[in-house]
């Protein structure tokens, strides 16, 4: 045994020395002033994950730019085109992306121009620190060099080249705008009122995530554990890219959104974090009072700031049609007209209280040596959005209601959820709350912190008191059913191992069924109607899960849909913050419930679908165009958000009458901060958006089996699973 261990040690040493020697040979004449060699190695594993090894940050960035351009070339350049506000110039008014929606390029361009992102990105570039400027420049150099080496780019994508550093920042601005203006919070939802109808839904289907951090009291090993489970749209600007960075100064495994140059969520031997979509209101609308061509503020007529730009829209024949835009700003922010009213939009981060250091904050979060340093980085509040769920090797756990919340002049969340009086200057906020004024939970006695996109009061137990915070901070509401189910899973498990955490992550029990199904079955059986009794029999035998093999879940989901969604159900007990873990519950209106069950059953029967069909026969995990020879197709497990499943997918109808996932589980990581660190990962739809890539949808079968991969954290593990090796001199 000792000899075997010795051979393994020697093997690891040889691999390490070979790597160092090869890097030294490659870069021997390219040393920086501080003696660090330039150049990088990229080892692509058999899941299409690039593991980047370099001595310098800018060498990491260069290699990462090349890696993104290999895995997502068309998507990457299309996103940068939209960040410039010139997507329609390159691609035409509408781009048939196919996954999952067509993209209305012209409407997005109008919105981007109205917000001023192209010009602001140039300003942000000048505000970068020298090290981040060098990093950004290297990242785009990698993109451009990889593009030059590619012979398969579409003409539209090639027209976007060369990529510039400000393109990365414009893309960052657009991503945060979609979060901040399309929040699931009651407060920010009003900002979507000003969007053109054609882009309101796709640009704001941003959803949420599950995030847990478990302390020693909830861990079998006594080590802290992290569950990072983002739920985002499957495609477009919310596409995840998984990677590993390895250097003497920067070490992280995780994922980022395509087009961003740093890891957005991740972990290393010291710590890890995940973001969840916030209920923060960082965006407000002001309904303006007009006086001729001016607007009134405190009774004084004021001129709009006016700017004119030309938008070009590519026509089917290749010609460009010019459209003149007149862009206006009031004191509060950009002005939009909707339904005969004029509104000014005031939004943190990307317009007011700007956060040009957001990328550097993510970079420094990964480099933090410990919890105190990590929290100090977060306190910069350069990320204008997102909750943070954190765990580390020192067994600390932390949840924070992050982002920039405006310091408002009174009012509660409901008040700011509606457009406010634009003629009052006292309602124009100019500062944000500090981190120490935001809800947080640090190493609570419960042993856990979590968030699944609900209001922040339920991060742990006991719940936080909303009265201790600004009334406008977040609605005083109950947790979502998905979050309630997550808390049940945490509390029902005395202590987690990585395996039991894996089981919990894939839990598909529908909490809504637990709350209302007994009443529904009882009403149906008492009705005396043969059809309702037959439906009740199917529901009574159902396991109340949305596993692929579950029989009854399709009928239950159809009943909820026929009722108008879970919010339209007539509960005996409505959602009550005084009973946050037991409501809503029961059904008070038997007639309404049964009429919708009849409609659901008839709808399935008319479509030729048995009432007891297995869930996975109808609900599918798919990648690729309908009818395509290479289409990937797997049975799904996991219900829609409102059904109360912890494992969440949202579905739309497909051409064959089945439902395909377009939203939900994406990149997921389960981490135990032991010695050694252990982690499970998956990127559900694969690590490439290129249909011809072997990594396009290749992880769907793994997801369908409720399995995850072991994260390859050590060099020898990567070498053993090597698919391709690359060297770059820069």
From TrEMBL:
Single GO BP term: antibiotic biosynthetic process
Residues the entry annotates as binding Ca(2+): 281, 284
Cofactor: Ca(2+)
Active site residues of this protein: 209 (nucleophile)
Alphabetical list of InterPro entries matching this protein: Ntn_hydrolases_N, Pen/GL7ACA/AHL_acylase, Penicillin_amidase_A-knob, Penicillin_amidase_dom1, Penicillin_amidase_N_B-knob, S45
Cofactor remark: Binds 1 Ca(2+) ion per dimer.
Keyword Secreted: no
Domain of life of the native organism: Bacteria
Signal peptide: 1-28
Keyword entries, A-Z: Calcium, Hydrolase, Metal-binding, Signal, Zymogen
Keyword Flavoprotein on entry: no
GO molecular function, one term: hydrolase activity, acting on carbon-nitrogen (but not peptide) bonds, in linear amides
Family as reported in the entry's similarity comment: Belongs to the peptidase S45 family.
Name of protein: Acylase
Species whose genome carries this gene: Chromobacterium rhizoryzae
